[in-house]
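This section describes the prediction task in plain terms. A model, or a person checking by hand, is given the sequence of a single protein chain and must write out its three-dimensional structure as a string of tokens. No templates, partner chains or ligands are provided. The sample shown here is typical of the held-out split.
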Amino acid sequence: MKALPLTPRGLLGFDWSIVTAGGVDLKETDPRTMASRLVHNIFFAGEILDLDGPSGGFNLQACWSTGYIAGESAAAVNAPEAGKAKA
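The expected answer:
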């Protein structure tokens, strides 16, 4: 994707300002690797995913956990020898 112009139409107010909604459907993602089920060699993490939860650190933990899984998985796919050395 090279360009996706978006124009905000307004704000929902403070009560909604700490939540990100929408994103890549979790059904389209392998939770063991965070890889796309639709496009080979694309991995998702954090707020790009359609994953909502209460604020207070839960969203940060979701970002860190999915980021770790996606990073490890992408490294293993793109450099198989690196994945073998860790095992």
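For orientation: The two ends are 34 Å apart (CA to CA).
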